Amino acid sequence: MMQVRVLPFGVLRDWLGASSATVELPEGATVAELLERLSAGQVPPQSAQLLRSIAVSVNAEFATSAQELRAGDEVGLLPPVSGGAAPAEKTRVGGGEEQPRTALLTHAPIDAERLIAAAKKGEDGAVVVFDGIVRNNSHGRRTLYLDYEAYEELAVKQMRELTREAIERFGIRDALIVHRLGRIRVGETSVLIVVSAAHRGPAFEACRWLIDTLKKTVPIWKKETFVDGAVWAAGEPFPAGLSVAPPEASHEG
């Protein structure tokens, strides 16, 4: 037998009742077998159902249902999300110290003006910005604040990969994604994307692609608190190839 560490995120953490747990499995067990074991345990019906449409990571890398697990592996359970190398130059997110560019997570307020100004270079003809802010209502309910959490190691990897792909796909010069974590009030920036390019067309296209893809693939979750309650945002399902599901029961007999 072997033991693996399971890390549920977002609504799964609320339903499963722990930020991490150790699960004992037979040697050579797969991700699918782990999910089957969890689904068969004492979990709420809605949790067991959601386990059939999540993504799973093993040691901060996306995994397939067929991947074999090893003793000591860290397995992330990732419900649908809300929502190259980094250049050497650095930038400030808020009032803290400078950090490597392209992909940043921060608990500090995002200083959008500073980041946009830092993105402009002499060879650029356009800088396109997506500034996602917290609005005061959602689906007819008055919003008090949002709380964001992330599987931080995997989220930064995915964000860096998105900026690298955007540069290659759209021919832009540079891109930066900054996402806020923790509690965010109405009117504050939750996510900032800044794209720099010689021409406006590629800059617009890259910026739209970055936010749309981030909302589907980066493990960041949003909990919305209203005047009359709180709920985890349903979010975007993971695309085919990232989501996993335990195998259906065999009908052979």
Map the helices and strands.
Layout: E1 2-8, H1 11-16, E2 21-25, H2 31-40, H3 45-50, E3 55-58, E4 62-63, E5 74-78, E6 90-91, E7 99-100, E8 103-106, H4 112-119, E9 126-133, E10 137-138, E11 141-150, H5 152-170, E12 174-180, E13 182-185, E14 189-197, H6 200-217, E15 220-226, E16 229-232
Parallel strand pairs: 1-5, 8-12
Antiparallel strand pairs: 1-2, 3-4, 3-5, 6-7, 9-14, 10-11, 11-13, 11-15, 12-14, 15-16
Helix pairs in contact: 5-6
Explain the overall architecture:
Helices cover 26% and strands 32% of the residues. With 253 residues, it is α+β, with helices and mostly antiparallel strands. The protein folds into 2 domains: 2-78, Ubiquitin-like (UB roll) (Roll), CATH 3.10.20; 90-232, Aldehyde Oxidoreductase, domain 3, CATH 3.90.1170.40. α5 packs antiparallel against α6 (200-217). It starts with a strand and ends in a 21-residue tail after the last strand. The model is unreliable at 84-92, 95-100 and 246-253 (pLDDT under 50).
